[in-house]
Structures are given as C-alpha cells and as structure tokens.
Amino acid sequence: MNISNEIKKLTIDNAVTLTELAEKIAKAKQKHYSVQNLSAKLKKGTVNLNELAIILDELGYSLKFEKK
What we know:
The protein has a domain at 3-44. The chain is 63% helix and 0% strand. It is built from four helices and no strands.
C-alpha cells in the first residue's frame, strides 16, 4: 500500500485539490505549509503521522489502530 496514492485518491474522491489540502494543513498546524511541500512529501512518501491525521480529518476520514 502506497500512502501517497491513497491520499491522492481520497482527494479526487472528495473533490479537494492539493492546494486546498495544503492550506488546511497550514491552518491546523498554524504555520506555513505550501502545496510544493505537500507534493514533495507525497512524492517521497515522507508524510508523517500528524500530517496524515490532519489530511484524513480534513477529508472526512479517521485514523484508527486496531489490534489484530
């Protein structure tokens, strides 16, 4: 599973652009966060857990850990 591809699919499914998503991340983190930064992290696969939680929340999803 490639998290970058999954995030891109979710943005398409929810009609949210990467620019809008970057703006929402910046607002949640209360610091500058550019679309270039987001694109680079998606390309490299270096999105951290905090950013993933913000992304999923903004797209209407939640992150859940379940014991096997």
